[in-house]
Amino acid sequence: MEHTETLTRYIANFVDELVKSGLTEAVISPGSRSTPLAMTIRAHPKLKQWVIIDERSAAFFALGMAKKIKRPVALVCTSGTAAANYFPALVEANYSRVPLVVLTADRPHELRDVGAPQAIEQIKLYGDYVKWFNEMALPEANDVMLDYVRSKAARAVHMAMEGNSGPVHLNFPLREPLIPDFTIVNLWGEKKAQHFHPTIDGVKRLHPSQLKTLISKLQRNEKGVIVCGPQYRDDLPEALTNLAAALQLPVLADPLSGMRAGEHNKDHVIEGYDAFFRDVTIRTQLKPDYIIRFGAMPVSKPYLFYVKEHKNVPQFIVEEHAGYREPAGNKTEFVYADAKLLCEDLTRSAAEVNAKSTWLEMWQRINSIAKKHLLAQSEAQLLTEGDAVRCMLDCLPEKSSLYVGNSMAIRDVDTFFMTTSKDMTVLANRGANGIDGMVSSGLGAAAGGSHITLLLGDLSFFHDLNGLLAAKHYKLNLTILLINNNGGGIFSFLPQANDKEDHFEALFGTPIDIEFQHAVQMYGGDYYQANSQPELQHAFETSYKKGGLSVIEVKTDREQNMQWHRAKWQAIEHELLNGEED
């Protein structure tokens, strides 16, 4: 069998097995060495392809899509620094447990380490940031090697989803000529419906004796706290709500927990804890007997203070498969079990655990006071950042998704996202918490089939402007609320702000003084600037009705924003500690 047919059958069988294993989407960045992979993926009738020129943008695009569709997405690039540009997104995917199948083309072995162009060391390029790495064999097309290549494809998809999801990496050494021949007979191999490695994946559930032991550790305590951090299971909020009701406990719900929106009962949900935990006296008054946390560590830094100050309080962290997400460094008991099933098992045994309704009522009263101040309308003429976020949350349509940038954006959502019966999903890149790749991530989520609203700041927008090309190319529906405070607004809240005379603006404030309207129009988007809440509301309504790419810019002042937030926190603290408003 001559080279071209061998290459074609080898790659075609691999791609076909990806599809049989459930993969439906592939993001391709153009290049020469990856020609066999790119062309074969594009030729497969059941694979949808997205061509994103810049590999860094492509990787974040795939990340956002995988978050939205909750299935693996393939990434394909050529050799050399193209593969290195995937790194930031793969770091994020690893920490946020997002399944990606990374396929990098490479020079064959005889062209490595000899000065050949576009050849770097790609063996285990991503280190421990991928769950599994495999250096693929050079293409052969006998029966043994076609089974081999299908086995690797099936394993790649399985490994990306198995346990805690994450990225996997397969490296393909390929010799020239690189153009496949799609006219060969039986291109995709044997027409079998079942894929090469079918799996039966059971769930992890505590044994009755283990459950009894856990309950014994809770039953003598009345003042427990349930915490739900970032997690993306749709079936957990209702199960966790039922558990909270049975135990008469508050649920501290992170904005990425899925607990703040939806039809489940939210009487026990406490969403204002980031605001009232800022006072050490209040944190002391709310000392619990135990804490049970589901999901990752919450966004809120005051919650971290709360946990650290109560380091001797028994803490239980529920992990579905494996993990060690406990940045406070406290003595902690990890419970490895399916979260929904654990909630159901504990709910059935709730009668054995003491409950104290006054404990829950205290949390609900404090939360109500915090919400009253957080939702109070601003007297300022211009929009504040908090006003803009609250307006955005009100305007979000039913069955929509919000993608939130890091830094101040996620913190404002944490502060102002109150419980609602609205059916909505909130996504964010909270694995490594970087501000890079956010535009591409939002567009990747939009490629998942729905209109996405993306909230981010001006520095994050600037970092990923070239990501907007995907919106123009594929006519994706993305509305961006751009909060422009001309720099790094979050640093105004940090100790670095005390050095405003010498270093602050150059190193932390970093104003960029860009008129973003020109960039938006360059990529074919609609631009709006909103200076009042009615203008902002109208811009959102117009954007959702029209579709496509829209950027709504709200310009704010960093110093005024910091003072406005602190005034809110001080008002909450004053009423909680003194029993009255100013």
UniProtKB/TrEMBL annotation:
UniProt cofactor(s): Mg(2+); Mn(2+); thiamine diphosphate
E.C. number(s) listed in UniProt: 2.2.1.9
Pathway where it operates: Quinol/quinone metabolism; menaquinone biosynthesis; Quinol/quinone metabolism; 1,4-dihydroxy-2-naphthoate biosynthesis; 1,4-dihydroxy-2-naphthoate from chorismate: step 2/7
Organism in which the protein naturally occurs: Lentibacillus populi
Database matches in InterPro entries: DHS-like_NAD/FAD-binding_dom (IPR029035), MenaQ_synth_MenD (IPR004433), MenD_middle (IPR032264), THDP-binding (IPR029061), Thiamin_PyroP_enz_TPP-bd_dom (IPR012001), TPP_enzyme_TPP-bd (IPR011766)
Name under which the protein is recorded: 2-succinyl-5-enolpyruvyl-6-hydroxy-3-cyclohexene-1-carboxylate synthase
Family that this chain belongs to: Belongs to the TPP enzyme family. MenD subfamily.
Main enzyme class: transferase
Domain Thiamine pyrophosphate enzyme N-terminal TPP-binding: 14-124
Record note on quaternary structure: Homodimer.
Record keywords, A-Z: Magnesium, Manganese, Menaquinone biosynthesis, Metal-binding, Thiamine pyrophosphate, Transferase
Cofactor binding note from Swiss-Prot or TrEMBL: Binds 1 thiamine pyrophosphate per subunit.
Functional note: Catalyzes the thiamine diphosphate-dependent decarboxylation of 2-oxoglutarate and the subsequent addition of the resulting succinic semialdehyde-thiamine pyrophosphate anion to isochorismate to yield 2-succinyl-5-enolpyruvyl-6-hydroxy-3-cyclohexene-1-carboxylate (SEPHCHC).
